[in-house]
UniProtKB/TrEMBL annotation:
Keyword RNA-binding: no
Name assigned to this protein: Phosphatidylinositol-specific phospholipase C X domain-containing protein
Alphabetized UniProt keyword annotations: Signal
InterPro entries: PI-PLC_domain, PLC-like_Pdiesterase_TIM-brl
Gene Ontology MF terms: phosphoric diester hydrolase activity
GO biological process, one term: lipid metabolic process
Keyword Signal: yes
Annotated signal peptide: 1-19
Length: 429
């Protein structure tokens, strides 16, 4: 690909951004993924010229099949808004290669970039002409396929992430016991699905059961926690991440953010966990030479060239507990800012600007973690688009991530950043 082709790709993206964006998100009204309903959103850029007259949802691609719409929404000249529908997401199936157990042939490029999950939306103008098309898309290889991004250090990209990445209900943990606090389930997609959809930063609170699960294999002793509730064993999630990275050659950042149970001094838990990480990810984890280099300065290109696809951030103030003089696969934390959206949403942008002023974001990677409550429906794409576009936020990590179209937003902003820094776009492939 030469750089002319690259620019055309950008113009296409910019054009889409300037149309009145219409997209689908997932409500949090059910703990079960397939029971969760869809929300239709439009905005924020819409103006009198481009606010759609109607938005319609279909269960089949209306360009390919003649099919009646399932629901019709009238934006009523509002320049942004959202309407919850009664349509349930249903079972999702990815295209061939991207389902976790798919067999496929290595050397065939299974086209999947524009693959839509279950539903399609079209918007129409007042004379009933289609003005936009959208769906919930998968983005299994956005880093690999957007070579314009390869020369950017990680700290200059927007990396969409989930907070409490392992906190979702599965059929088996539904049966396992009577959950008292259902608010601990803060995601609706499992980690594999999150990665296929485009998430590239994951965080986990981990607990270690020593005596309680004494008979268990080491692998069964580490659990995902949310605060003090254990949710599910972590090992199979780690295997899924490994499998995804090997398949996609994308770069995934994992933050082991808290060690909430069983990691007390003398427990040996950190050492055992580190060994488990080493055995699982040793061959594809980025190596920290402990020479003062920041992991946020690495570029996608450097990582891919070295065949390193997992960056493990380990939130332990003293990585030297492991007595390592040099190489380790664990990296120290990035800057971190948290906004707790339980507060009045109207004040978030003020708080956000204050955070930005106080954070030294230009020279280091930083994570914005947004915590919200299920009951609070106002996590708004308009907010993200403006905030992310105007700042240099690096990782954005969300619970209830798919209440927003965080992935599209991140990818658009990355393209805009690439476009405005053309000196980075110097490679011809
Ligand atoms: C709707 O879009 C069509 C096709 O672009 C255009 O010809 C028509 O004038 C538009 N109608 C209105 C009311 O803007
Ligand atoms: C990971 O998350 C924790 C807690 O959310 C945060 O304090 C920390 O800065 C993050 N750590 C890394 C290693 O990025
Ligand atoms: C967020 O704020 C609410 C209300 O102030 C508080 O109850 C909650 O514990 C906070 N959550 C976090 C993770 O800080
Ligand atoms: C939000 O902002 C308004 C006015 O700007 C202020 O009166 C109110 O106290 C703020 N609320 C919080 C929770 O900071
Ligand atoms: C992002 O900011 C640029 C320049 O400030 C602006 O031209 C563009 O429209 C903004 N994009 C979005 C999606 O808001």
């Amino acid at each position: 690909m030469n750089s002319h082709v690259t620019l055309l790709v950008f113009f296409k993206t910019v054009f889409i951004v300037h149309a009145c964006p219409v997209y689908l998100t997932l409500s949090t009204n059910s703990l079960i993924q397939k029971e969760s309903t869809l929300t239709v959103n439009w905005g924020p850029d819409c103006n009198n010229q481009n606010i759609p007259a109607k938005i319609r949802i279909y269960s089949k691609n209306p360009y390919l099949y003649e099919t009646p719409s399932l629901e019709e929404i009238t934006p009523d000249n509002k320049n942004f808004g959202k309407v919850e529908t009664n349509l349930k997401l249903g079972e999702i199936k990815f295209p061939r290669k991207w389902n976790i157990n798919d067999q496929f042939e290595e050397n065939i490029d299974y086209e999947s970039d524009s693959y839509c999950l279950n539903f399609f939306i079209l918007s129409f103008n007042h004379t009933n002409h289609v003005i936009s098309f959208n769906c919930m898309k998968i983005n299994p290889q956005w880093m690999t396929k957007n070579k314009e991004l390869w020369l950017f250090p990680l700290k200059q990209l927007v990396i969409p992430g989930t907070h409490c990445s392992g906190c979702y209900m599965t059929t088996s943990n539904m049966r396992r016991r009577n959950w008292k606090n259902l608010e601990i389930f803060q995601q609706r997609f499992n980690v594999w699905q999150q990665l296929v959809l485009g998430i590239r930063y994951l965080d986990f609170s981990v607990g270690y059961f020593r005596s309680f699960h004494e008979t268990l294999d080491i692998k069964g002793r580490f659990w995902v926690f949310n605060e003090n509730h254990e949710i599910t064993p972590i090992f199979s999630i780690l295997e899924d991440i490994l499998h995804f990275c090997e398949l996609s050659k994308e770069i995934v950042i994992i933050n082991f953010s808290n060690f909430v149970y069983g990691f007390h001094e003398g427990s040996g838990a950190h050492e055992i966990f580190k060994k488990l990480l080493q055995n699982t990810f040793g061959h594809i984890a980025v190596i920290n030479m402990q020479n003062g280099k920041l992991s946020s300065d690495l570029t996608i290109q450097q990582l891919k060239t070295a065949s390193k696809y997992v960056l493990i951030l380990y939130n332990y103030n003293d990585l030297n507990i492991f007595n390592e003089q040099k190489e380790t696969i664990l990296w120290p934390q990035w800057n971190h800012n948290q906004i707790n959206i339980t507060e009045n949403v109207a004040n978030i942008s003020t708080r956000f600007s204050e955070k930005i002023k106080s954070a030294d974001m230009v020279n280091e990677g930083w994570i914005l973690e947004i915590i919200s409550k299920k009951s609070l429906k106002d996590i708004d794409n308009n907010f993200f688009i403006q905030m992310l576009n105007e700042s240099l936020v690096n990782v954005i990590s969300l619970n209830f991530a798919f209440l927003t179209n965080i992935i599209d937003i991140s990818l658009n902003i990355n393209n805009q950043r690439a476009l405005s820094r053309q000196n980075f776009i110097t490679i011809d492939f």
